[in-house]
Design brief:
This protein is an alpha/beta fold. The protein contains five helices and eight strands. Helix 1 runs parallel beside helix 2.
């Protein structure tokens, strides 16, 4: 899949699709929409349901860029997949946290799962998905 996109690189590794954002900044709506389109297109082309978005190259984004990732998350969830972000710079993490969009675990319908590194993300995705909060609440009741 490499070479099909201007703003991302898509790589398959076993049962995981790794989407590396090749931009260092996303500051405007047009670029955010182009990024969203490419991310969703790459996921639709793949049969994999485990998706990692590697943000190692991205140093700056406005809250407009969140639209790209929210659109991707909706598409992944719609197909029963799991999405994880990794390698967030401190600034990017602050933008996601300001919008309350990060979570250290799978729980939460809006929040993104986050891992420090790509290796951490791949490790977590290789583990069974945690039971939903509703299921664990019923078991403990």
């Amino acid at each position: 899949m490499a070479g099909l996109y201007r703003h991302i690189t898509a790589t398959a590794l076993n049962d995981v699709l790794i989407l590396t954002v090749d931009l260092d900044q996303v500051k405007d709506y047009v670029l955010a929409e182009e990024l969203r389109f490419e991310l969703i297109h790459a996921v639709k082309r793949s049969t994999r349901q485990k998706i990692v978005v590697d943000l190692q190259k991205m140093e700056f984004m406005t809250s407009l860029a969140c639209v790209a990732f929210l659109g991707l998350k909706a598409g992944v969830r719609e197909h029963g997949g799991r999405l994880m972000l990794c390698n967030l710079s401190e600034f990017i993490r602050k933008v996601f946290n300001a919008k309350r969009l990060l979570s250290p675990s799978y729980y939460g319908s809006v929040a993104f799962e986050e891992a420090d590194t790509l290796a951490d993300a791949l490790q977590r995705l290789s583990e069974p998905m945690p039971a939903s909060k509703e299921t664990s609440d019923e078991v403990s009741a």
